[in-house]
Here is the input.
Amino acid sequence: MKKFYYIITYGCQMNVHESEKIAGILRELGYESCDGAERADIVVFNTCCIRENAENHAFGNIGMLKKLKSENRNMIIAVGGCLTQQMGKADNLKSKFPYVDIIFGTHNLHKLKELIILKEKQKKAVIQIEEDSGVVYEGDSPFRTSYPNAWVNITYGCNNFCSYCIVPYVRGRERSRKSEDIIAEVKTLIAEGYKEITLLGQNVNSYGNGTDDISFPKLLESIALLDGKFRLRFMTSHPKDFSEELAAVMAKYPKICRCLHLPVQSGSNAILKQMNRKYTVEDYLAKMEILHRYIPDCAVTTDIIVGFPGESDEDFAATLDLVKRVNFASAFTFVYSKREGTVAAKMPCQISEEVSKSRIMKLVELVNAQTRRHTESYVGKTIEILCEDFDAKKQMYMGRDEYGRMGYFKSDVNEIGNFVNIRVQKANGVSRLGERV
Ligand code: 5AD
Ligand code: SF4
Here is the structure.
């Protein structure tokens, strides 16, 4: 009899790729995917705890499975990801949701197969959270679901300890995969027909630190030199580690996309210091200058937090100023979320929800206006789109250009995975509608 799995993923690309690894394990055990928890024999929650709302969301959805589980006692519910790795959270989850069968963490995801087999043998729940061993596990067989893009981890964990961020506590210290393993994986992916490779890490620029392996720019170059038509992206970069060498490599190889995600977090030096970001606004602007000297039209995107403890009206005004100066192609904007165990959680002057809300609204308005202007500037131009998907609602194919901008077009044939030139006829928010040329 067929067995089905259903995975619910919260959070970033890192988690999306980890869910692909979970899917790979479940398929090895004979499970097939299905499109809802109702039909599933195993439901896996791959959680995120970077902000409180992601955490609440997961808690809410696990709670909603209680009824299904009471109707189908054989269904296995597993919870993994960043949330479970937080101190005391696994016990908390177990007491709140006694019907959860398996709880695993970020450091033993690759052991999920054993945990499921163990659960099938015993009645008792299996709860196993491991600490970071410092060892990089090789041997994942992800079941990839994002063709034509393929995610490739290059580093795990983070050493930066930005004062607001829980990631270093739940993902452990930074460790890099061996360059030979990364390059071998990319070669296989290209041979399999993937057209876009996205290198993943919390701070890709510090790849190889503390080892005698090659630096991040050299790794990027080695991959860009591989044969085949494909695009190369990477995320996320930390401004303090962004180097001229990297800008030069990006400029030299057309396979490397003309876009950079460089989270600035705030436009105020006082707040950046409190955030432990280790750069100033001036440093950030100097890096922008270097980047644009090498790649004048590079699209820069960023992350910004508003409402960090102690953020004054002047600090926030400085953030708006910086957004105008840099003219980001787009930005992810967040209201600061207090994370227990981080340094910022203990800081005085936590900002009220009301003030944070009004700030984020102003910021979003500014960012949206800039994004719209960027998008509109493409009308009349021809761009090369890598087609990713078919949008059933719009009845159009969609994809991105090398600047990371979305484009939609009509076609009578399946275009997914094709590089397609479109002439942009209309701009619509972040996306552009065009005609195949
Ligand atoms: N509150 C709000 N945003 C946060 N981020 C990380 N931690 C927090 C937090 N506690 C944001 C940062 C980071 C992005 C991935 O999430 O902007 O770059
Ligand atoms: Fe968190 Fe800072 Fe590390 Fe990014 S660099 S994961 S924000 S601690």
User: Anything to note?
Assistant: The pocket of 5'-deoxyadenosine (ligand 1) is lined by residues 50-51, 164-165, 263, 265, 303, 305, 334, 336-337, 339 (CB under 6 Å). The two ends are 49 Å apart (CA to CA).
